[in-house]
Amino acid sequence: MKRVSFNNRNIEIAGNVHFPNDFDGSRTYAAIVLATPGSSVKEQIGAIYSAKLAERGFVGLTFDPSYQGESSGQPRDLEDPAARVEDIRCAVDYLMTQPFVDEEKVGLLGICAGGGYAICAALTEHRFKAIGTVVANDIGSAFRHMQPKEDLLRKLKDVGKQRTLEARGGEPRRDPWIPDSLKEAEATGIKDPELLEAVKFYRESRYRHPNSTNRLLFSSYAELLSFDAFNLVPELLTQPLQVIVGGKRGNTGQYEAGKRLFELSPAAEKDLFVVDGAGHYDMYYKPEYVGPAVDRLVSFYMKHLCASGED
Description:
about 300 residues, alpha/beta, two-stranded antiparallel ribbon
């Protein structure tokens, strides 16, 4: 693995490149850009999938989004869909400058919210020749449907009040994405098994990482609630598409979102793969579920990038 950086306009993006074990810098390889879930940093889910793809012969690039992790940008903890989509485009720019990357063999993999961002980027970024998603979700749609309309409108009103406060010199508001511990979740009466799985993974497992703050800048809701990742899929998504979902349905809506994406796609070559028994967060790190997903992705990328990992 090699630490790298590239720019999204005036923001420096921190990334990690995972190389095949037998990497030879004099040759060219197929490469995969990975877009990670909301609140996640490059050392977590992106690293798991990127490393496994590298083991199978691909170069993998995972990175921290603008305003988060080791990437620069102010204000911190901003989740801006437009910036996240542009991060992905800039990741391709970076790969195009690397002599070991075959520019005709670049794919994209998006996971969870990163799946929605990946799809949105792929609509107009056709340097990506094949698009894969794992438990993809349109974060805008998910957030809009998580609450009654009156609560959603109230939140937007609160965002306006918060922006006014900050414009007048007040402190930015940062809310937790999820409870900071299982104990805190229990104390607040949370019983949703998927949310508890998220807390377990992000806050109480070996995958917890200090660069993942678990904080969302409150004003981000203005951008998030108006975002629609899948809106133009029927018109603009032309690349081969591999959609992977967990067979266990839950409140994240990953199964329904993946199925919707698959049905919307006009691609001549597309596939929907259901990993039986897997819930949303199982697909992040559990070998019995990640393994079949990676096998499917490798087969897909080898076919559509016309690569076995090298020239």
